[in-house]
């Protein structure tokens, strides 16, 4: 079954409306929560009067920071980044005196209906003394900038320097140097299903059950135990179907803690479903990195060194996993697919009065790859070299894998040259360049963009935990065969739309050689699933899938021992093929898989031979290294010079995800990732004023790509198996989102090359490009160009 493009088994319930999301959970006596959130980015609360709201008929409780201060602990960090501060401020569950971003929760109303809760929120009297605020990295970095957290005496939360090789010598002998400030624009994750939670505390049993739209059920349970002071065994987290997540449902949020606490106080189930408007103001944003980097090359285009700084906008608070975005992902991947011999870069995390940022599809890898791929194109332009050729000359050489980069990562396998050649073949690259020359003669702006990426996946092996500032993040799986021969696979990782139920079943079916209909895959319930760290960092197939694979093999080994007892031979003499155990040399002596399963539970002869009752195996898998998926993408764009509108004519994606469990699912993941990358490159931008007011807080102001903006995505798949896990898989869920932004940006800048435009930050909106074209035309005609 591994390698077959079978239809996703979970899609039937999604397509027929039978899926169960948090919003579909209804319990007797359920109450409903709504939040009062800050309308200002920075202010001191001078009045917070909840009396009128509390008098509403049907309002059960109104909670503020004063009501929870003695009962709720701060949200803990799971990584401690390198910092000179004794402690970094934890995000409060409800704002206590000071608000630091628009959307920060201040009060929680619990009522008998959602509408009543919202009406009561409107009745709360709230007044502020407005405080100075900073809305971007540029405003926050200055020596006299307003401070988000005055106790720190700076807005810089942490920093780390990554230095290897003789960078000074590299730049001293360089024939070409290119320095550029580049911004990876802030985006708002927009899953179809916003966040939501149902918390049900049982006062009699003193247990808490939470239905939560999350990526990490077991880690959520740990967070709730730490924050609420409950024993972990008294908390059950259930992850129903999840309508997308993209990293935004990975952290533990203050509002979710408040809902759980409200249920504990009231002894009743409390439900909260985030509105789309709330989502913009309360759920972590992604990206928002600023890089000032310089690259050195010789006259032949060989890259000699890279140096500079990368700044991450943390927002108002450092969320539990945010520091790893820049420190463990962006900095180590700044060398991309290239054999760069010397690097000296420093990464910083900076507080601003904006919504906290967190992981978003790719989580630091899209930022690092964007920076290096833009620089590579700029070097090619300066040397008047084809961008294909400069990449070819600097790729990690064929046959050099495993390859240890200057930043300390060991790329496991691959061939970047062959993927480049395939992308060029699919595109008819020489034909495209000829068409471009003809278009330019006609005054048309046709651009061709290329970008290569490598993606660190499988977070986080024990061997790399110290580098990440994290604990080892292994995964576990349990495979159980019931007496009738059905097999249940339970995993600790948790899917949110990637096709896990299908892929995990395919892995187990391949090992046990049974029809896929024989398998049931379960995850997302801490009461039944084995412990796991969840879905993020391209890890579900690489680590969770490997655990399933090994567990299936061990279950088959045990089944062979039981079959040997039934067949009266040694386990070494048992052959197995497609559900049937036979005696080697005596093929007529056989027993079926179902008979073996029944005997495991009911046969006295089997138990008398020392075999424990039942047929179940649990495995924990901790990989020896990350995995490194890679690819080369190519885009063709045409810009309307009169309007600045970008038309995406073609998009080609050539990717290596190691062994593909289900190629059709792989292709779907590429399509989804590319669509999100197109959104970032051309449409999406979470904009703030310098004073930190959010100017795009809804889908009326924030542009997502429509189907009409997406071309037919042409795909090709290579499989260079990873030696880091028994399946050879690498992951593919984030590759499109990593590669698409630099691919499209390079294409846009290539189209503008006749105007001498060197760099423009994303998103490349029609307004931006129209202004750039007009500016350069004015400059050509002897104007100022301003």
UniProtKB/TrEMBL annotation:
Report the residue ranges that make up the Aldehyde oxidase/xanthine dehydrogenase a/b hammerhead domain in this protein.
Answer: 16-132
One protein family per Pfam: Ald_Xan_dh_C
Protein name, UniProt field: Xanthine dehydrogenase family protein molybdopterin-binding subunit
Q: Name one GO molecular function term.
A: oxidoreductase activity
Its organism's taxonomic lineage begins at: Bacteria, Pseudomonadati, Thermomicrobiota, Thermomicrobia, Thermomicrobiales
Q: Which cofactors are reported in the record for this sequence?
A: Mo-molybdopterin cytosine dinucleotide
The UniProt keywords, alphabetically, are: Molybdenum, Oxidoreductase
SUPFAM superfamilies on file: CO dehydrogenase molybdoprotein N-domain-like, Molybdenum cofactor-binding domain
Q: Which InterPro entries does this chain map to? A: Ald_Oxase/Xan_DH_a/b, Ald_Oxase/Xan_DH_a/b_sf, Ald_Oxase/xanthine_DH-like, AldOxase/xan_DH_MoCoBD1, AldOxase/xan_DH_MoCoBD2, AldOxase/xan_DH_Mopterin-bd_sf
Which superkingdom?
Bacteria
């Amino acid at each position: 079954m591994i390698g077959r493009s079978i239809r996703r088994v979970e899609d039937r319930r999604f397509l027929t409306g039978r899926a169960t999301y948090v919003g579909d959970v209804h319990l007797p006596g359920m109450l409903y929560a709504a939040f009062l959130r800050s309308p200002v980015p920075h202010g001191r609360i001078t009045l917070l009067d909840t009396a009128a709201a509390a008098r509403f008929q049907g309002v059960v409780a109104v909670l503020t920071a004063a009501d929870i201060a003695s009962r709720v602990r701060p949200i803990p960090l799971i990584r401690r980044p390198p910092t000179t501060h004794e402690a970094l401020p934890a995000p409060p569950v409800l704002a206590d005196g000071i608000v630091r971003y628009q959307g920060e929760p201040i009060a929680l109303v619990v009522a008998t209906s959602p509408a009543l809760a919202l009406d009561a929120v409107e009745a709360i009297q709230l007044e502020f003394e407005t405080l100075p605020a900073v809305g971007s990295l540029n405003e926050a970095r200055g020596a006299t900038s307003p401070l988000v957290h005055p106790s720190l005496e700076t807005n810089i939360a942490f920093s780390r320097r990554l230095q290897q090789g003789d960078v000074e010598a590299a730049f001293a002998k360089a024939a070409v140097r290119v320095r550029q400030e580049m911004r990876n624009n802030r985006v708002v994750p927009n899953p179809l299903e916003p966040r939501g939670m149902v918390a049900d505390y049982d006062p009699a049993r003193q247990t808490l059950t939470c239905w939560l739209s999350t990526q990490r059920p077991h880690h959520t349970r740990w967070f709730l135990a730490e924050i609420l002071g409950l024993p972990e065994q008294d908390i059950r987290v259930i992850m129903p179907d999840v309508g997308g997540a993209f990293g935004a449902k990975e952290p533990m949020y203050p509002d979710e803690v408040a809902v759980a606490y409200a249920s504990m106080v009231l002894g009743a189930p409390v439900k909260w479903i985030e509105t789309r408007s709330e989502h913009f103001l309360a759920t972590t944003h992604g990206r928002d990195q600023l890089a000032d980097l310089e690259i050195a090359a010789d006259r032949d285009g060989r890259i000699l060194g890279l140096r500079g700084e990368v700044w991450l906008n943390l927002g108002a608070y450092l969320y539990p996993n945010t520091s790893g975005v820049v420190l463990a992902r962006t900095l180590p991947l700044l060398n991309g697919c290239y054999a760069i011999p010397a690097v000296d870069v420093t990464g910083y995390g900076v507080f601003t009065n904006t919504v906290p940022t967190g992981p978003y599809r790719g989580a630091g890898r899209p930022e690092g790859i964007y920076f290096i791929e833009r620089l590579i194109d700029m070097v090619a332009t300066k040397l008047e070299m084809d961008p294909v050729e400069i990449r070819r000359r600097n790729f990690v050489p064929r046959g050099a894998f495993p390859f240890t980069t200057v930043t300390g990562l060991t790329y496991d396998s691959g061939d970047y040259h062959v993927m480049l050649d395939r992308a060029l073949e699919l595109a008819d690259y020489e034909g495209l360049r000829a068409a471009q020359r003809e278009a330019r003669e006609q005054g048309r702006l046709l651009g061709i963009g290329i970008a290569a990426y490598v993606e660190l996946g499988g977070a986080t092996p024990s061997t790399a935990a110290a580098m990440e500032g994290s604990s080892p993040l292994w995964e576990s799986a349990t495979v159980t065969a019931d007496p009738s021969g059905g097999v249940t696979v339970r995993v600790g990782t948790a899917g949110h739309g990637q096709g896990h139920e299908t892929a995990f079943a395919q892995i187990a079916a391949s090992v046990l050689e049974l029809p896929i209909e024989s398998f049931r895959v379960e995850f997302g319930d801490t009461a039944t699933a084995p412990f796991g760290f969840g879905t993020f960092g391209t890890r579900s197939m690489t680590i969770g899938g490997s655990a399933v694979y090994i567990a299936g093999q061990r279950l088959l080994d045990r089944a062979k021992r039981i079959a040997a007892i039934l067949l009266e031979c040694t386990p070494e003499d048992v052959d197995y093929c497609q559900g049937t155990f036979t005696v080697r040399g005596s093929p007529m002596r056989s027993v079926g898989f179902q008979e073996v399963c029944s005997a495991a539970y009911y046969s006295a002869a089997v138990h008398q031979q020392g075999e424990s009752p039942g047929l179940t195996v649990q495995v924990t898998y901790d990989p020896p290294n990350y995995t490194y998926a890679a690819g080369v993408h190519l885009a063709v764009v045409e810009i309307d010079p009169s309007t600045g509108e970008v038309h995406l004519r073609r998009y080609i994606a050539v990717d290596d995800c190691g062994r593909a469990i289900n190629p059709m699912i792989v292709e779907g993941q590429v399509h989804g990732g590319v669509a999100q990358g197109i959104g970032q490159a051309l449409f999406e931008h979470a904009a703030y004023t310098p004073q930190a007011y959010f100017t795009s807080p809804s889908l009326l102001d924030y542009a997502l790509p429509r189907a009409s903006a997406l071309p037919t995505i042409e795909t090709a798949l290579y499989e260079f198996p990873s030696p880091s896990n028994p399946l050879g898989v690498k992951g593919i869920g984030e590759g499109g989102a990593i590669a698409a932004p630099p691919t499209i940006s390079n294409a846009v800048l290539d189209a503008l090359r006749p105007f001498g435009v060197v760099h423009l930050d994303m998103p490349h909106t029609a307004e931006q490009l129209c202004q750039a074209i007009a500016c350069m035309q004015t400059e050509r005609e002897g104007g100022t160009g301003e």
